[in-house]
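Z., the sequence and structure:
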Amino acid sequence: MAGTAEVIQKTNVIEVADVSKIYGDITALDGISLSVVQGEMFGLIGPNGAGKSTLFKLMLGLISPTSGSIRVHGVPIDGRDFRAVRRRIGYLPESFVTYDNLTGLEILRLFADLKQVPRSSCAALLERVGLADAAGRRVSGYSKGMRQRLGFAQVLLGKPDLIFLDEPTNGLDPQGIHDFYQILRQVQAQGATIILTSHILAEIQERVDRLVILQTGQIAAQGTLAQLRTQRVLPSVIEVTLAPGQQARIEAGLARMAGLQITMNGQHARISCLPAQKVAVFELLFGLGGAVQDIAVREPSLEDLFLGYGEQHVQAH
C-alpha cells in the first residue's frame, strides 16, 4: 500500500542458546544466551577471565560447548555444513602472528590462497588499510600498528559477511583508529555483521549498536547503550559555570532539592543527580537567570556502566 512504511525483519546471524563451557574444575561460560542480528555491530566486553575469548572460539566453531547450542547463519557449529559457513567469516585475533620474512603483499596473497579468493584483490586491500607503500617490505620491519593493519586486510579478503575482531585497534594511533572504524562502517553498510571486543570502552561506546557485558562467565547485562543506562540507574553529572558572586544563590536554590550531590569550587559547581531529577535541576538553574553562564552534562559512560554492572554482579554472587 502506498505511503505505508515497509518493515524489514532482520534475521539472527548468530544464536547462542544456554551455552556453558567447562575446563576441568573451571567454568569458563555458564548458561550464556544471546543473539546477533544481521548487519549490526555487536560489542562484547568484560574483564580478563570473563569468558570473551572462549565465547569467540565457540562462535567461530574452533571449540565445542560443554552444553547448549550455537548456530551461525542457521547452521550448528558442530554440523557438517559449518565448513561452508566458515568461508564467509573474517577473523582478527588479538595477536596477529605471521611470517616476518615475507612481505606484506606476500602474506596477503598467502591468506588469499588459504581462503580460496583471487590474489588480484590483495594490492587494493593493502591500499585500503593504508599499507600500499609498505606492500613490498618485509613484515619484520613493520610496526605493531602496521601489523594490525595487515591483519585487518586479511579479514577483508573475500568480502566476508560475518567478521570477528578481538582487540582490533591494538597498536593503532588515533588516525589509524579513525580509519579503521571508517572502513568498518563501510563494510557494515554493505550488509556485514561485526562482532568486536575491546578494552578501550570509550572507543566503542558510540560505535556499537548493541553489546553484552560478561562477568565471570555469565552475562551481567546486554542491550543498547541507552537500554543499559535505563537498566542500571547511575547518576548524571551537571557541570555549571557561575557568574561572579552567585555561589551562595546557587547553593540556596539547589538546597531545596533532595538527593543531590553538590561540589562547589569557586565559579564552578558539579551536581550529581539521578536521571529523573535532571529536568527539575535544569528548570531551577534556568530560573536563576544571569546566575548561570554555562552548563555541561555528562551522562554515564560505558566505562561507568561496566564498573556498575560489575559491582552488581559481585554483590549478587
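Confidence is low (pLDDT under 50) at residues 1-7. The longest strand covers residues 12-23.

Let me know what you think.
H.
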